[in-house]
Amino acid sequence: MKTIKLGRTDWPVSRLGYGCWRLVDADGPEALTAEQIAGARRAVSAAYEAGYTLFDLADIYSRGAAEAAFGAVLREIPGMRDRVRIVTKCGIRFVGEPEPTAPYRYDFSEAHILRSVEGSLRRLGVETIDVLLLHRPDYLFHPEEVARAFAKLKDSGKVRAFGVSNFRPSQVALLQSACPMPLVAHQIEFSLLQLDPLDNGLLDQCLQTGMTPQAWSPLGGGALLRGGDLHEDHETDVRVHRIQETLRAIARERETTPTVVALAWLRRHPSGVQPIVGSRRPERIREAAAAADLELTREEWYRLLEASRGSRLP
Ligand code: NAP
After folding, report:
1. Do the Cβ atoms of 146 and 109 come closer than 8 Å?
2. Residues facing 129 on adjacent strands
3. Which of 56, 83, 300, 314 could make an SS bond with 19 (beta carbons 3.0 to 4.6 A apart)?
């Protein structure tokens, strides 16, 4: 698969990343079954063989079971650890932990960041995480406290690079002002069903600073491809049908599939968007990889934007 440089590192990473949120349905590593690990093996090895070299995880995915299952597969495939970049996230905490009254919340305290990374390293079975992302902005975060945690993790060799997810541009700038190392990635929700990053300054900021924008739920969690009226309201159904029709038309013209067109649409933005593919099915993971090679024209890109908006641009 074609590659891009991740942020301002000199690391080539695959044009699309593979996301492990849906990899296993287990509730914690101890709940993993042999069948779930076999499913994870099928998905992760299909992605690796199709050329994906960036794998996205989080400490909370399946309460640590996604990291544990990914780590198990990583150990089975000779040479894989040295050829891939592992991204994981921290900063979200579950209700009832550690004390029963604790609500679901965000926590960028130094102690929590350091503790979370220890857990991820253990579950993944690796000595170093390539990129640590802060999952969702903690309203109580102090940039200098986060910078201290990052410095400790970098100096100890536990994390190579850092980034964020779901931040506002001002929060990115605030954190970057306290961190000597460049933030390398910003993971945001971006798809033909979620156009906000085009207008809220997030992609502009990535382009300006060199951070790689990573698009999560690039197929709207599958909604862009699913048939029938399955969405939350009639308006969304109408919108989805309109987008699907245009995706199908362009796919026919370009002799490819609607999935490939939907992912190539994200890639067309000049900020170098890296879609994070989330299917568990090997054939879909392989299909999506073709989006690394499809270059949409400006006209095709705007046809899809118009289909998503449901109206002509002003
Ligand atoms: P997605 O690619 O938009 O959605 C994947 C889902 O779509 C899967 O359930 C898949 O089902 C389904 N799907 C794909 N093709 C389909 C088709 N042709 N017909 C019907 N269903 C289809 O991505 P996502 O899984 O929502 O997110 C991708 C990754 O982004 C995650 O794994 C995670 O790493 C990351 N993420 C990050 C955040 C964050 O806050 N930073 C939030 C959410 C996700 P099958 O498995 O059956 O193919």
Report:
1. no
2. 159
3. 56
Ligand 1 atom at minimum distance from 277 CA: 2
* Domain limits for position 176: 3-309
Nearest of 112, 48, 113, 114 to residue 86 by alpha carbon: 48
Which portions of the chain are predicted below pLDDT 70?
A: 228-231
Q: With the CA atoms of 67, 70, 71 and 74 taken in that order, what torsion angle do they form, in degrees rounded to the nearest 10?
A: -160
Secondary structure in 3-state letters for 111-132: HHHHHHHHHHHHHHCCCCEEEE
Q: Does residue 103 fall inside a structural domain? A: yes
Closest protein CA for atom 44 of ligand 1: 216
Q: What is the pLDDT of residue 205?
A: 98
Q: Establish whether residue 276 lines the binding site of ligand 1, counting it when its CB lies within 6 angstroms of any ligand atom.
A: yes
The CATH number assigned to the domain holding 155 equals: 3.20.20.100
- Contact call for residues 294 and 254 (beta carbons, < 8 A): yes
Which of 122, 139, 38 is CA-nearest to residue 88? 122
What tokens appear for 242 in the block?
Answer: 């309109």
Asked whether 210 and 187 are in contact (CB, 8 A), the reply is no
pLDDT score at 235: 87
**Catalytic annotation present for 139:** no
DSSP H/E element including 243: helix 234-254
Query: Domains in the chain: how many in total?
Result: 1
Q: Whose CA is nearest to atom 23 of ligand 1?
A: 217
* SS3 (DSSP) at 265: helix
Ligand 1 proximity of 216 Cβ (cutoff 6 Å): yes
Cα distance between residue 141 and residue 284, in whole Å = 39
Catalytic residue among 18, 48, 52, 61: 61
Which CA distances in Å does 248 have to 253, 261, 262? 9, 9, 10
Q: Nearest 5°: phi and psi at 140? A: -100, 15
**Cα 56 to middle of ligand 1, angstroms:** 12
